[in-house]
Amino acid sequence: MATQHSRSAARIMMAPAVFLLLVWMLVPLSMTLWFSVRSYLPLRGGDQGFVGLENFTRFVTSSAFWPAILTTLIIVGGVLLISIVFGILLAMLLDQPMWGQGVVRILVIAPFFVMPTVSALVWKNMFMDPVNGLFAHLWRFFGADPIVWLSDASVFSIIMIVSWQWLPFATLILLTAIQSLDSEQLEAAEMDGANPLARFAFITLPHLSRAITIVILIQTIFLLAVFAEIFVTTGGAFGTRTLTYLIYQRVLESQNVGLGSAGGVYAIILANIVAIFLMRIVGKNLDR
Amino acid sequence: MARAVTTQRKALNTTLAWIIGLLIFFPILWTILTSFKTEAEAIANPPVFLFFDWTLENYAVVQERSNYMRFLWNSVIIAGGSTILGVLIAVPAAWSMAFVPSRRTKDILLWMLSTKMLPAVGVLYPIYLLCIQLGVLDNRLALVVILMLINLPIIVWMLYTYFREIPGEILEAARMDGAGLKEEILYVLTPMAIPGIASTLLLNFILAWNEAFWTLNLTSVDAAPLTAFIASYSSPEGLFFAKLSAASTMAIAPILILGWFSQKQLVRGLTFGAVK
Amino acid sequence: MFSKTVLRATSAIAICAAGTTAFADSHATTITIATVNNGDMIRMQGYTDQFTEETGIAVEWVTLEENVLRQRVTTDITTNGGQFDIMTIGMYETPIWGANGWLVPLDGLSAEYNVDDLLPAMRDGLSHDGTLYAAPFYGESSMIMYRTDLMEAAGLEMPTDPTWQFIREAAAAMDDPENDINGICLRGKPGWGEGGAFITVTGNSFGARWFDEEWNAQFDQPEWADALNFYVNLMNDYGPDGYENNGFNENLSLFQQGLCGMWIDATVAASFVTNPNDSEVADSVGFALAPNSEGVDRRSNWLWAWALAIPAGTQQADAALQFIEWATGTGYIELVAENEGWANVPPGARTSLYENPNYQEVPFAQMTLDSILAADPNNPTVDPVPYVGIQFAAIPEFAGIATEVSQEFASAYAGQQSVEEALANAQAITNEAMEAAGYR
Which pLDDT value is given to residue C23? Predict the structure, then answer.
């Protein structure tokens, strides 16, 4: 259907977006690469000269590096797991006939509208505070010692806060997918004697695979960059230092831009490894 | 739905869904309630739920300390501007990818998404220096452009998946009726694409509104949005739950209200092509 | 139809955005001040209108939480971004930035301002090579605040210069878990200016130090093990749950609710804990010098000032200087005293304040002054050190290193690693970073 004419028109229409993103990618990327081979210390007057790959070796050999990678993967994986499992359950529930469906849907998607800083502040102070937090009151009511969430269950707490923000997104996408499921197919399976679990495993889940892939792809992009939630709650302490946070510490707390930039290059590499991995799956799922 | 549903079953669903919905919404509800309490009531044990002396004092304190309207206005301009600009640039791109696909279309899409993976903290100094050179620190337009660029990949992708759902036969039928490219876009595609564009606008407005790194680090006064507003309330001295709640409520209320009123539109287009 | 409304509304916004210069100021001169969101600063914002009336200079405030403030002003000063005409900074940043030529020297202060009235400790700490670079808005040391009623009930009497050993004894006597009263509340929160500052001064009072004279980290020395073990045992036995998350604000809130027997922290807290509007224990708070370990000739009190400085990149240096004179001069102190009482004036900056008979009646005035005078940034430790500063070392790398070290310590407070492991990690982190910076 595409003629020569429409092809060149298409190219022109794509040009602004491609050009802008190319600039937006290349400028910071080349600056990051430049800084990563320099000793750039703002508090010592700025550029101290070329240091080769020193920043790169220093960044990986630091005792904080591998734990940070691990923490990143745990947090991203944990949030994905929670938001998808609960997202599916919630979507299936919301798909059922009920009274006040619209209102319930509003309640469920509300956390998505909350700024990350605000949600971290609210969770940290009003819920997880070991003295005045609501959880502490609840624990004491049942005669238990309050949990010190942000240190005793630090990674879990962060996963919980971030999941709360992203569960609505997953639920919405999964819900639209479930609503498009052919109910006659389910009924036929029911008549054939398939139990609910089998119906879920062989009909609903395959139908949702595409939606799940999309949730994973989009959330991963945002989750790799999670920052405000950690900054506000633990400041990277108690094993919650992700790669992004480690870079923040190098650039802003230690004021070592060269070292932080080298970390930035590693983060790009990690993101692309994850991305290629995801694209494989997505690519397969997107080609219907 | 073809299947008959018993009232009993419906009641069960309703109860369960409402309980879960309220649980998920509870942190927001609690924040809003706390914002009307005194500081002492805010930390009371056992917590007071509804029966306290409702007061607007916290809002008065917050309003006295900071010019809320200015922060709000900046948020509206930055989020709104970047979203509109982004959609204007993304619509043609997504259109051509969806209707004139080439072998490289998918690669270009994936590449676009990958530009989102550079961690912002790593490039703070380069971007800050660049902004100084261009003289655009604390400038709303600069933030509009930066947030547009950050969200552009998502916008393109969302529109692309939506456009792709529009059946090609309709276009061919229109062409046979003698419609040119202009008519094709204006009379055939646009009406069909509006739900998708509307939900793209909404989603990106939300994402831009909540972006808290660049909006905080590249502004001081003239362009500072609500993310900067909240940064001045995060750890005051002494008891502060009630004031924090008031500031938080003020920061999220506009977007929450917008989201609620438009949730049908948001949901309709928020499929990312997930629906077969 | 909704989508039409959206399109219409958004295009309206776009048009407004293009043409707006809303909220532009009609004043001839406007200065922008970056500041921290603590009580005294917020109070000052309330009085800014008076300054504008007197001088015609308008003031824009950028009020940020401490960590965000540091991040913002440091980025701006090192890149010469020129976003602010006045920055609120501390005793750690001032000498470093001054030495780099990033701050306007404050040698143009008027005779009326009487710069010699600044407490010598504050003036020294905010100078580099004898030139003043920032004017102290308020100054502080640290001291013990304790509940006189609980102390009496325990049958103990607080000496004016207690030792850590006595503190432990008193904490044991006041600790009352059944009534939710903790014997003692101390900072443990990660961050160089939070728990990091506290454990550093505690180290000083046990004879420990950060570096030897060749910049080698000293966390492998027995003094640090003593200090950290003492702190951890004290807090595990008599401190609140989750103290590894408590900083100044958290402890203030606990003390004001009557949940702490003792609290060792910034002297400025005294006016908050004795203020009956906020504090449930306002009328039963006593004060004493920060403790030392028996036989160690250094106390655990620090020295700090929040000060106003003018970045070299500003176009409004004159107006900025006018504001600094107004905000840190005696006139402002009198203004606050008149409106809110002497207990609420910004403390710790001027000698004349402590000579004022009205102020001498304030219960914590003398102890604040004594604490400030007892702190000596040039000789912070028993053994000699190559750095200046008590709860910090005034080198650019310190903030980053100390934040990571305090995170290691906080993990030990939380029981996630042993004290020995924390010290070994701290030693490695510090030496690694000092090597990277070229000290070793």
Answer: 42
- Check whether C309 has a pLDDT greater than 80: yes
The ipTM of this complex is 0.89
**What are C87's strand-pairing partners?**
C34, C309
- Tokens 């509304």 locate to C9
Question: Are B272 and A221 spatial neighbours (Cβ–Cβ below 8 Å)?
Answer: no
Which of the two residues, C135 and B182, has the higher pLDDT score? C135
pLDDT at C17: 42
E strands in chain A: 38-41, 46-50
Cα–Cα distance list, B244 to A150, A158, B57, B85, B217 (Å): 19, 20, 12, 33, 21
Please determine, for residue C1, whether its predicted confidence score (pLDDT) is greater than 80: no
In chain B, alpha helices (H) = 7-34, 39-42, 57-65, 68-99, 105-114, 124-134, 140-164, 168-176, 181-183, 190-210, 214-217, 226-231, 241-261, 263-269
How long, in residues, is chain C? Answer: 440
What is d(CA C309, CA C137) in angstroms, rounded to the nearest whole number?
10
Q: How far apart are alpha carbons A26 and A12 in whole angstroms? A: 21
CATH topology of domain B65-270: MetI-like fold (1.10.3720)
Q: What angle do CA A245, B217, C28 make, to 5 degrees?
A: 160
Question: Can you say whether the dihedral through the CA atoms of C85, C86, C87, C90 is positive or negative?
Answer: positive
For residue B251, which residues of chain A lie inside 8 Å, CB to CB?
115, 118
C-beta atoms of B76 and C66 within 8 A: no
Question: CA neighbours within 13 Å on the CB side: how many for C335?
Answer: 15
pLDDT > 80? residue C32: yes
- Using DSSP's 3-state secondary structure scheme, residue A2 falls into coil
Distance from the Cα of C380 to chain B's closest Cα (Å) equals 28
Domains in chain C, start-ordered, CATH in brackets? Answer: 23-133+304-360 (3.40.190.10), 142-301+383-436 (3.40.190.10)
Question: C: neighbours with 3+ CB pairs under 8 Å?
Answer: A, B
Assess contact for C57 and C30: CB atoms under 8 A: yes
Tokens representing C189 are 């929160």
Q: Cβ A117–B172 below 8 Å, yes or no?
A: no
Would you state the structure tokens that stand for residue A78, as one six-digit string?
């944990």
| CB nearest to A110's CB, from B28, B112, B209 | B28
C84 close to C76: Cβ distance less than 8 angstroms: yes
Residues of B in contact with C68 (CB under 8 A): 216, 231, 234
Query: What is the Cα A230 distance to its own chain's centre?
Result: 13
What per-residue confidence (pLDDT) applies to A192?
82
Domain boundaries, chain B: 7-59, 65-270
Give the closest of A148, A236, A252 to C242, CB-based.
A148
pLDDT in tens, C372-399: 999 999 899 999 999 999 999 999 999 9
- Dihedral (Cα; B88, B91, B94, B95), 10-degree rounding: -150
The C-alpha torsion from C285 through C287 and C293 to C299, rounded to 10°, is: 140
User: Which residues, 6 or more positions from C167, have their beta carbon under 8 angstroms from its beta carbon?
Assistant: C144, C184, C234, C262, C264, C291
Are the CB atoms for B201 and C6 separated by under 8 Å? yes
* pLDDT score of C251 more than 80: yes
pLDDT higher than 50, residue A180? yes
Distance CA B77, CA C141 (A): 45
Architecture of domain A65-240: Orthogonal Bundle (1.10)
